[in-house]
Amino acid sequence: MEFAQKRLVHISQCRGVTRKFIRKMIAKDRTLRIVYEKSPKLLSSSFSISLQQAQLFYQDLHNDYLVHNINHQMKSYHVVTIFDPIYPQLLKSIPDAPLVLYAIGNISLLQQHSKISVIGTRNPTKEAYPKMKVILEPLIKNKLVIVSGMARGIDRYAHQLALQYNGWTIAVLGGGFQHIYPKEHVALFQQIARKGLVISEYPPYQRPKKYHFPERNRILSGICFGTLVIEAKQSSGTLITVNHALDQGREVYAMPGSPLYPETRGCHEMIQDGAKIVLDANDILEDHVKWAQWVK
């Protein structure tokens, strides 16, 4: 299986392929060996892709420089594939689970069941940080791992509070480790890498692209038992993560706030639509106890 894992990392970085395409390959040959023996024409006919796609794929399959880079990545970072025992079962169960995760830091946190994602606006109100402190401090002291996206605003506060209270935190990035976004969070990235875990489904050299951020949100929710929304406007990008959480059968929690702030409007609508209102940490901890008993 070790060779299949390495082939999966290689194939995932080739041009002309998608995750859906790779899943078709795995279904036909779990070792992923036979694909290396096919010509562009056979690749095109076997997997119903255009000849142009097949030619790009074939070139990268036999690109020694790319193979060299992948060997370097696997020595420099933790590289976890969907074939690995350490790959989180909870994440594996979601639709379109990431096939490869690149990681820096405490890799054992991947298998920690007690994770909650904390998300919200990049432009929080002055009430956001004190609200988060009241709710997150007990969660952190009860050993819940705080997961967020290392964006500005709520994400940054979530990671900072976890670090401040000597807790565990995981950052899920929308690009590779060599291109941290936003740039002012490089120091935060380094802190989390030392004291927690940073993961991305994008190779280290991959610059973040606009569509990466909504795409990575399925991981933010999928790796956790629940998602806590601190503040969000109507039609906020935060709702993408909430929708993923609902599709994945995860708990969704929302914090109320002053009706004077548009940043609280999204949370109020979530509560009206059935999200669990969070007034104190016990609203989450009670569900976590039930979850922990279920996973055992």
Question: Mind explaining what this structure looks like?
Answer:
Helix content is 46%, strand content 12%. By secondary structure, the protein is α/β, with parallel strands linked by helices. The model has no long low-confidence stretch (mean pLDDT 94). The protein has a 9-stranded mixed sheet with strand order 1-2-6-5-4-3-7-8-9, sandwiched between helices. Helix 3 (40-47) packs across helix 4, helix 7 (128-141) crosses helix 8 (154-164) and helix 10 (212-222) packs across helix 11 (238-247).
Q: How are the SSEs ordered, and which strands pair?
A:
Layout: H1 2-12, H2 19-28, H3 40-47, H4 51-61, H5 64-76, E1 78-81, H6 89-92, E2 100-105, E3 115-119, H7 128-141, E4 145-148, H8 154-164, E5 169-172, H9 186-195, E6 197-200, H10 212-222, E7 226-229, H11 238-247, E8 251-254, H12 265-272, E9 276-277, H13 282-295
Parallel strand pairs: 3-4, 3-7, 4-5, 5-6, 7-8, 8-9
Antiparallel strand pairs: 1-2, 2-6
Helix pairs in contact: 3-4, 7-8, 8-9, 10-11
